Amino acid sequence: MSKRYTVTTALPYANGPLHLGHVAGVYIPADIYVRYLRANSKDVVFIGGTDEHGVPISIKAKHEGVLPKEIVDRYHGIIKNSLKGLGISLDYFGQTSSSTHYDVATEWFQKLYNDGVFSEEVLQQYYDEENKQFLADRYITGTCPSCKDEGAYGDQCEKCGASLSPTELINPKSALSGNKPILKETKHWYLPLNNFEPWLKEWIEKKKPLLKSNVYGQVKSWLDEGLRPRAITRDLEWGVPVPVKGGEGKVLYVWFDAPIGYVSFTKQFLENDSKRNWEDYWKKDGESKLVHFLGKDNIVFHSIIFPSMLKSMGDFILPENVPANEFLNLEGDKFSTSKNWAVWLDDYLEDFPDKTDLLRYVLCSILPEQKDADFTWADFVAKNNNELVNNFANFVHRSVVLTNKYWGGVVPAQGELTDFDKEVLKELKKYPSKISDSIEKHRYKEALSYLMKLSALGNKYLTETEPWQVIKTDEERVKTILNIALQITASLGVLSSPFLPETSEKLLKMLNLESLQWTDVSIDNIDAGCKINQGVHLFSRMDEKVIDEQRAKLDKAKQEAESSNKKMEPQKEITTFDEFQKIDIRVGTIVEAEKIKKAKKLLKLKVDTGIDKRTVVSGIAQFFNPEDIIGRQVSILVNLAPRKMLGIESEGMILMAENNKGELQFVAPIEPSENGSVIA
Prior knowledge:
There is one protein chain. The strands form 8 sheets. A 5-stranded parallel beta sheet has the order 3-2-1-13-14, with helices on both faces. Strands 20-19-18-21-24 form a 5-stranded antiparallel beta sheet. The mean pLDDT is 92. By secondary structure, the chain is of the alpha+beta class. It is flat, with a radius of gyration of 33 Å. It has 4 domains: 4-108 and 253-325, 3-Layer(aba) Sandwich (Rossmann fold); 115-234, Methionyl-trna Synthetase, domain 2 (Beta Complex); 349-520, Isoleucyl-tRNA Synthetase, Domain 1; 577-666, CATH 2.40.50.140. 41% of the residues lie in helices and 17% in strands. Helix 11 (377-407) packs antiparallel against helix 17 (545-565).
């Protein structure tokens, strides 16, 4: 293993909280890896932070009428606190809006500019004449050329996932003014990735044995297609200013600026450390190892673009590995911020304040390591009850309780070992290396499964040896049984620490083994004669009503989002006053109402119009019961030409209003009015 480790987590945009998809893809595996390294006394810095530049943040700030800095500071705090609440043991969680980051990012651009790494290009870019501003990707919306969705952005269609350029949009419009933009000349700097292509191909092939197949496959696909220069500047106000002549009114493009944050955050973290220097973690080739944790949407940035930047800087180490994960889905559907189809981490911590290790366990057990995975509340409850309570907690509880019951909490000594005892101890001895090997290969689900197999081994041992029965006839044999059970328990206490840190701490405290280290784990973890404490419940059973409660919460949030996002119908064609004068709308009263067979949406109404009593067929059956609307005053269009519907002649139309939830409401006079009153 290396002398020191730099471990980073992908930087989420500081324009909203984290959901479980972010946590599963990045933070859980990263934290497991770091906690494992620390348990093995490795020198590691664990660096994360928020990405605080880019168009989405600028747009959110404009919508709220505040400065971008207010937005990023707010969400940085929310994200930081949520990660802390989940036990993510980051050493430093920085902001790309900090002065240190601005200085470091500026220094990088200046060096690469002076070294002649960049190319320059004058191009046509969309411009909003009303706001006097060039429009970056997310400032432009239009119709997607692939799926025809009208809400596509200038860089991507969120409905079909197609990658786009602004000029590909059909009917483009400015997200600022709503006007059609014009094309105007502007100059930008580019990182010529094509120049790095031969080196990147060679480097990736050397890395192939270490890389996950999904990472290697995506990178190779990009390289096979051929790399092109990529713009590193944008015409924006919010971001790190371009520090050269001609860069006025321009900032560093977020994808160039953000990964430099890993370096600037490390520098901030260690700036007052007299024993360690940030450069040791970024510039000591052969002594330091750099590992990036991220989701699959960031693979290219960390496996092609950022390595090219590091290479250009000359003396920086390159990533040892990029163990990217696929996506986590929720109840069979993709996580969606716009649809509010998500379990937000801060909400979870509020709803389940004492169940952080449970969430860590569930997410690790379903990590989307090679393919997309699915989080469901039914699985959440089942894993708690069947795996953590019935398996892990049950074994620990039996071992500790029986020791306190029979021997007053004093660890008994082993006597003569049976063949079964020897077999169990032989198996126990294998687990530290099994779990270590899986973690070092970034197979976290596999590592967790070994931990649970060790717990299952303990349960099997107690079940088959039956100390609660043997105590009646052979106390010496029970001493051996419980000694071995406690050796397994102690191993679980240490080996669970990367996955279940709170549980590990509780367990080791029960055994008075807080100082036990990973390298100490063996078949003799706890000495005979040592005193253990009383047992505590590590996990508790969960009522299945949680499933329905959380699903209902999801559905409600989704419906509210759909309502708020629903677009009002556009204005219809202009009509003339003379045409409008032909419309005759009267006050009427519903005197009869009944359902129509084989028609879910239709009711047959009898309406007293003051002129006559007539039949009207109305599509309101999904919103009103017939008996509830008899006697209800309504507005009715009386001079509408009759129309047959399901064999019933309808002689008018009841006026209804549809709210943003898709619900219908009667348009009617506030005060009772005489039937036949003209609505003018």
